[in-house]
Amino acid sequence: MSxxxxxxxxxxxxxxxxxxxxxxxDKNLAFVAQMLGEIGVxxxxxxxxxxxxxxxxxxxxxxxARHDYxxxxxxxxxxxxxxTADCIAAAFEVKLEKHPLAMQALxxxxxxQEADFNEARQRMARIPEGASLIENPVSxxxxxxxxxxxxxxxxxxxxxxMMENILPTLKGGETLSSITVTSSIPEGSIASExxxxxxxxxxxxxxxxxxxxxxxxxxxxxxxxxxxxQLQAVETAIKAHLATIGAPLVDRPKAIASQ
Amino acid sequence: MSxxxxxxxxxxxxxxxxxxxxxxxDKNLAFVAQMLGEIGVxxxxxxxxxxxxxxxxxxxxxxxARHDYxxxxxxxxxxxxxxTADCIAAAFEVKLEKHPLAMQALxxxxxxQEADFNEARQRMARIPEGASLIENPVSxxxxxxxxxxxxxxxxxxxxxxMMENILPTLKGGETLSSITVTSSIPEGSIASExxxxxxxxxxxxxxxxxxxxxxxxxxxxxxxxxxxxQLQAVETAIKAHLATIGAPLVDRPKAIASQ
Lengths: 259, 259
Hints:
The structure is a homodimer.
Chain A (H helix, E strand, L loop, with lengths): L7 E8 L1 H4 L7 H11 L2 E9 L3 H14 L2 E5 L10 H9 L3 E3 L1 H13 L6 H4 L3 E3 L3 E3 L8 E4 L2 E4 L3 H11 L10 E7 L7 H10 L4 E9 L2 E10 L2 H17 L12 E2 L1
Parallel strand pairs in A: 1-2, 1-3, 3-8
Antiparallel strand pairs in A: 4-5, 6-7, 7-8, 9-11, 9-12, 10-11
Helix pairs in contact in A: 2-7, 3-4
């Protein structure tokens, strides 16, 4: 049994009244969490908060102290309700200034479109002092990184492109592998045995996820861990138990894969 | 101008490693927030947290002190990783006991299916002392309410059914109305004017939401407020400005509607 390595952790802050009110469905958390999972960074909490300065400042300061990385999405556009850059500057107690490289890139972007690089659009060049820019290949207006906080757009296509740029710069942790076994039986019929299996393999994390679809209901048992041999033993034990009770396996992708 | 009524606020806690890891996409926040919006309850923050006792207890205690209502989803099934009931009992420092009515309903449910009401399934009848049950017409295992905390299932179909049962028991606040004007122009081209409009109408909340779809890009301007006459004035002003700059209106539903 190997010594427990220090895990690398992250939190995400989704900023926007439109997500909180249910008008917009967030899709950014799942994308960021999966991408981080691939390099062994563990998403440990996420918050969805309104465009309110005090709330954003408090959340950023609480979470950046607690995690290796904090990712934010939303609120860096040109409008009066885009206040994330102001909030981050306030959280770090630094000035917010128009960044020359951001000004240059945005000027060129709007010139090329023959559009006006107006005062509202210049808001998007305001970057907290000491931050470095995160490139935005979709619509030019950059995100930025300050200390361990990564500030990204809310529009998924832009956020995803920024995240692709950020990922190679992050220091990952040890990655987990996972196995999934899916059967068309109710989770309650195997819950006790899976609980016992969890106790038998404390270094593996076993979760049961029921599903209900047009094709029928069932449960996926997902086991995650570092030791592939242990995961294979767990998979064998799950399948053996399902065979014993005559529960059919059904296809849902994912064999041993990086989670 | 009417005196500012006390607003009724809510928070949501989404419990589950599978949502945090990106394996499962949460759909419950949007549903709950929209339903609450219809009765004038304002969703002010949401957290997505793992199945970890200390984290759930701390989040519940922090948010129930701060909001009129707290809603949780996830972690009330039959498996070893379903620990929400334990967490709520710990947060309120009360015992967790098998509730006779829940036991009875579940026994009848599994009898009818000729399925075993085993020890794992009996876990779903464990309810914190002093809590009242929230009926589950989909799969019987109840949610529960203790003080201002409503504990619901994570499976959307079940959560929605529980929420339908909860809604008539809540005390709502004053509802907001909203207008939406959508145009196929970039948000940056009207951001300054909309910011000025916001200053002119401080009692109305004006937000700009850019969109990018296969049909093209654009921006929806959404104004929310209590005073319908003010909202109509804001709508007229937005449309007048769009007409001035020759920006076409495009169809996206929602006239003056309860948000």
